């Protein structure tokens, strides 16, 4: 694929989503680094995956709803339990396109852990069912948060400190601490907004300030934080 600036790439994504609405289920930022033939193959894989996800969600939802049929009084709301739960059922998901190919049908097992202190064991037959379980569980957690916010409010400071510590550690680890700092933390959404040290647009910063190696480290950090800590970085 030809090299894109941020604006051109956003225009490309908008046209892609308009042509293939089912792709709105996926974050396609990684296509910016793909060549034309590779991007076309990935888009086709993701289009097929989108339909498989719809089927998988219909399959797994009744069992997930049954196992997570708790009222707030059944649950133990504390920081440790919340972090364990959000790791199992994150609000943002990421996955390699390779797993969405034929190998995805070979992934079988059980998602075991605790949902705010209550044990769950949810079986899946493929990667689509696993991710659908995580999605339905995350929706259940979001509903509990929305409907019982004052039960979760005491976790706010602990979540803020946890997220801040993780982000600062990985900015330092990647050497990006000289380029970015935290602008905003949305604790219960597990979302962090970063700002660059020059206060210019992110598009201009990536094109004029960051080296390609530093830009790659930034995108790798974003993917790692979502997959390992359920923390999403937004611009």
Number of strands: 5
Q: Helical element count?
A: 8
Residue share in β-strands? 5-15%
Poorly predicted runs are none
How far apart are the termini?
A: 23 Å
What is the SS-derived class? alpha+beta
Q: Main sheet: which strands, in order across?
A: 3-4-5
What oligomeric arrangement do these chains adopt? Answer: single chain
Provide the succession of SSEs. Answer: HHHEEHHHEEHHE
Q: Can you give the mean pLDDT?
A: 87
Describe the structure.
A hairpin with a 4-residue loop joins strand 3 and strand 4 (191-196). The protein has helices at 6-19, 36-67, 79-88, 127-147, 149-152, 156-174, 202-208, 212-229, and strands at 109-115, 118-124, 180-186, 191-196, 232-234. With 235 residues, it is α+β, with helices and mostly antiparallel strands. 53% of the residues lie in helices and 13% in strands.
Topology:
Layout: H1 6-19, H2 36-67, H3 79-88, E1 109-115, E2 118-124, H4 127-147, H5 149-152, H6 156-174, E3 180-186, E4 191-196, H7 202-208, H8 212-229, E5 232-234
Parallel strand pairs: 4-5
Antiparallel strand pairs: 1-2, 3-4
Helix pairs in contact: 2-4, 6-8
């Amino acid at each position: 694929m030809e090299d894109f600036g941020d604006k051109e790439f956003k225009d490309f994504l908008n046209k892609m989503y308009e042509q293939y609405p089912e792709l709105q289920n996926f974050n396609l930022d990684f296509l910016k680094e793909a060549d034309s033939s590779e991007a076309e193959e990935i888009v086709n894989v993701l289009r097929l995956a989108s339909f498989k996800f719809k089927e998988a969600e219909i399959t797994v939802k009744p069992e997930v709803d049954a196992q997570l049929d708790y009222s707030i009084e059944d649950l133990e709301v504390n920081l440790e339990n919340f972090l364990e739960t959000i790791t199992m059922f994150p609000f943002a998901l990421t996955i390699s396109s390779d797993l969405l190919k034929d190998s995805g049908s070979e992934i079988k097992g059980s998602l075991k852990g605790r949902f705010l202190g209550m044990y769950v064991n949810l079986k899946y037959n493929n990667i689509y069912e696993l991710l659908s379980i995580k999605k339905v569980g995350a929706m259940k957690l979001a509903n509990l948060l929305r409907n019982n916010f004052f039960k979760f409010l005491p976790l706010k400071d602990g979540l803020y400190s946890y997220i801040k510590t993780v982000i600062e550690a990985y900015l330092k680890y990647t050497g990006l601490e000289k380029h970015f700092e935290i602008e905003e933390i949305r604790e219960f959404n597990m979302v962090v907004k970063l700002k660059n040290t020059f206060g210019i647009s992110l598009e201009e910063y990536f094109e004029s300030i960051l080296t390609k190696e530093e830009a790659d480290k930034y995108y790798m950090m974003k993917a790692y934080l979502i997959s390992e800590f359920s923390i999403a970085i937004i611009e």
